[in-house]
Amino acid sequence: MKKAVYIIVMAAAWYIAGMYRLFPFMVLAVAQVMAFFVMLIVSRYLRGGVFAAPAGTVVEAERGAGCGIPVDVENRRKISAARFTIRMKVRYRGEKRGKTERFTGNISAESRIRILVPVHTPHCGVLKAEPEEMKVYDPLSLFGAKGSFDGAVDVVVFPVKRRANIVFEEPYPGLSRGGENTGRDGKAAEYGDVKFLREYREGDSSRAIHWKQSARTDTLWVREYEPEPERHTELRLDPWGKKDSGEMIPDAFYEILYALLCGLAENGSSVTVRWTTPAGKPSSYWISDDDSAKRMLCELFADDAAAWRENRDGEEAENTVSEANRAKKEKSRAYSRSRAKKEKSQVYSGSRAHTGNSAGAEPGYILDGSLRLMRGNETVFCFSPDLYEEELERVTLYL
């Protein structure tokens, strides 16, 4: 647009100078032509001196919140770039098409800046951000030349962090509480089995005082208790068991899973998460904190994207073969359609054979693709795909 306006103004100056023989307009027209070609040379000069690259290879984000990909831009020339534009192709793993994100800025001579390219994060998973193009413009923004822009970034989009309200019906199963009562609300005594007696020290709880021994010796004695054992829970996932392996795992499943892990961690429980990939390979992950939960989610993201991509490529291959057979053998349309349908059903049944839910005999808890949390064959709670956010806030899960 600026170039078109500049050419119109330059043509008008030449016309006025030629028609009315005005010397100032003649000088202006000549200066405009010279500036036009100088800016063209400057843009080519800046092209070899402006570089851009992502500041890292992995960026964490939260679903729906968006994020910015840090990109370092360096200008090694002695001329400022009035404007530069960066375009990045952003797509989820397994997708062919993506969305182009743009950023426009400016950079002074012989300087280095860091910018943030905005990225939308509507779904959970791994976004692949790849450089598409970088253009550097002259000080008048008339001409643009491609600059150097290399490096790819993985944007890991995690679920929104929520905590499920979890209460264990047996706060410390198998542990003797020394006569202290435990209730359904999860509140229990602070102590376990008595290890030995020792003299009272300032700061000791009065509930730990051994009153009979203290009365006999006229000295306060307190009970020293065994440390509480660590709680451990096993959670089995079956995200592909209630749907086609060619579909992506819904965001609701990731949100509920992450909320369950956060709720268990809040109750001091470590978790072993187990699942079977669509390829039939067993996977397990031991989770004790938020970092290990995020690493487990990354593995689940990768399995889901691989399953979706493999299914999509298989469908494309089947369609190609079907079209080639129809063109080559000139078979009837009805026969080709029935054969393609039969082959497709065989592919899907093979995927399900590896992911069938045999969780009825498995210990611990199960979260399946229908968003149902189960303990053995007993349903603890079935979440709604549309109302799971409200349910995580108001529902208490008794495990």
Walkthrough of the structure:
The protein has 399 residues and is an alpha/beta fold. It contains 7 helices and 20 strands. The strands form 5 sheets. Strands 2, 4, 5, 7, 8 and 10 form a 6-stranded mixed β-sheet that branches. It has a 6-stranded mixed β-sheet with strand order 16-15-14-17-18-19, with helices on one face. A 4-stranded mixed β-sheet has the order 6-3-1-9, with no helix packed on it. Helix 1 (2-20) runs antiparallel to helix 2 (23-47). The longest helix has 40 residues, at 290-329.
Secondary-structure blueprint:
Blueprint: H1 2-20, H2 23-47, E1 50-54, E2 58-62, E3 67-75, E4 81-92, E5 99-107, E6 111-119, E7 125-137, E8 144-146, E9 148-149, E10 153-158, E11 165-167, E12 194-199, H3 211-217, E13 221-225, E14 231-238, H4 251-266, E15 269-276, E16 282-287, H5 290-329, H6 333-355, E17 365-368, E18 372-375, E19 378-382, H7 388-394, E20 396-398
Helix pairs in contact: 1-2, 5-6
Domain DUF58: 198-245
Protein name: DUF58 domain-containing protein
Biased composition (Basic residues): 328-342
Largest sheet: 6 strands, mixed
Question: What's the number of extended β-strand segments?
Answer: 20
Strand content: 25-35%
What is the H/E string?
HHEEEEEEEEEEEEHEEHEEHHEEEHE
Low-confidence stretches: 172-191, 314-329, 339-363
Work out the helicity level: 25-40%
Average pLDDT over all residues: 77
- Label the structural class: alpha/beta
The count of domains is 4
Shape: elongated
Determine the number of helices (DSSP H or I, runs of at least 4 residues).
7
Backbone CA Rg: 33 Å
